[in-house]
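Before relying on records like the one below, remember that each one covers exactly one chain. Contacts with other chains, cofactors or solvent are not represented anywhere in the record.
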Amino acid sequence: METSEKIKEMVKQKYAEIALQEIDMNASSCCGSGGCSTEVYNIMSEDYTTLDGYNADADLALGCGLPTQFAKIKKGDFVIDLGSGAGNDCFIARHETGETGKVIGIDFTPAMINKARENAEKLNFNNVEFRNGDIEKIPVTANAADVVVSNCVLNLVPDKKKAVCEIFRVLKPGGHFSISDIVLVGNLPDKIQHAAEMYAGCVSGAIQRDEYLGIIKQTGFENIIIQKEKAIVIPDDILCNYLNAEEISSFKTSGLGIFSITVYAEKPVQNCCTPESGCC
């Protein structure tokens, strides 16, 4: 892949395009469990429509889990959503935290921030805020949040260790996160690994499952739990954009696993973590 800055710019451009599409057009680029599925970035999405606080205008079908459903948000909590898009998880979180809480969505795509702000204004939410910012340098003060959520975003971040350290920094002692993301067990073919669309689609930027969980542990988090796990299958009509028939057959029998996992972890109440110990 390219340098970190080029990767970020590529991702930003792709998600700006998505933000500016009509929702019906974005949804139609994935045909669900059957038929066509021409865009990899929305083959992993789950159904949010049964969750309280759901707003259809904010649902761009870009996630790979339901982290807010598992996030144990309480009334009055301060919640941060990383990679907030059009506001989908923020509005679910806002229902849980109530009018006495606060929700901040962070996204580095200005078009997404604008869309989310428009949605919040239509809903007349005065305790939901959207900030333009990089997850590798979250624009929130230290020890501020009760809960952090994120849906299929860390795999898009070039420096995942730095991003997890930032999550640790902004959480209060005793705070926790619930994050859905894509991880691998095994190695992707080179043609997929180096495809820009597959990076933006949350596949080629994913790291090994054990490495992902190891980063969380090394950062200083405790009580790490996998709340949900599901296998992701990339349809043939997407694979054929990168692999020939023989390569697709080899890909399917390689033993490679692509998984969506929702991970919960807590920041210790008493933080003994220091840079010298290898964490944040």
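The two ends are 27 Å apart (CA to CA).
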